[in-house]
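seq as requested:
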Amino acid sequence: MKAIVRNLLRSTVDEVHLGDKFVLELSGTPLFEIELAPDETAMRYPTLCLDFDGVIHAYTSGWKGANVIPDELVPGAIEFIESASNRFSIAIYSTRSKYPNGIEAMQNWLWKHILEYYGGDRMLAEGLSEVIYWPTEKPPAFITIDDRVHLFNGKWPSLDELAAFKAWNK
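struct tokens:
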């Protein structure tokens, strides 16, 4: 039943993103809540969560707004996503993900670069685009690639170490 509702939602609601939650009600009584998740094919792989800004988008200009993405693609990003999609379910998450139009802006920006990567071949570009899901909250992931983290190795860093942190592109 939930699978039928999930497919119905995807085909009837204008703005549906993976991770969106819906409550099915009958005469005002909630029957069940459903969260859209990646398809079963994607779910058989562990999740690789990629940060958007500073990992895929160079982010050299800094924050300009959730739907303003002015910088270039980080070299090798699309090749990496393409390769990783054979072993991982790809989730792209960002601070932008929680803002209205943030996910759409990231999807449009990345689509332009994927299409360019495939020399304008829309079929190939759609194939890669379809394996990426865009959660609105940070997903539980096997591993995350982010430009602004400190790898915790069981030892707490000093506050000076944290204060001296610099992202790779700064």
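The chain has a mean pLDDT of 84.
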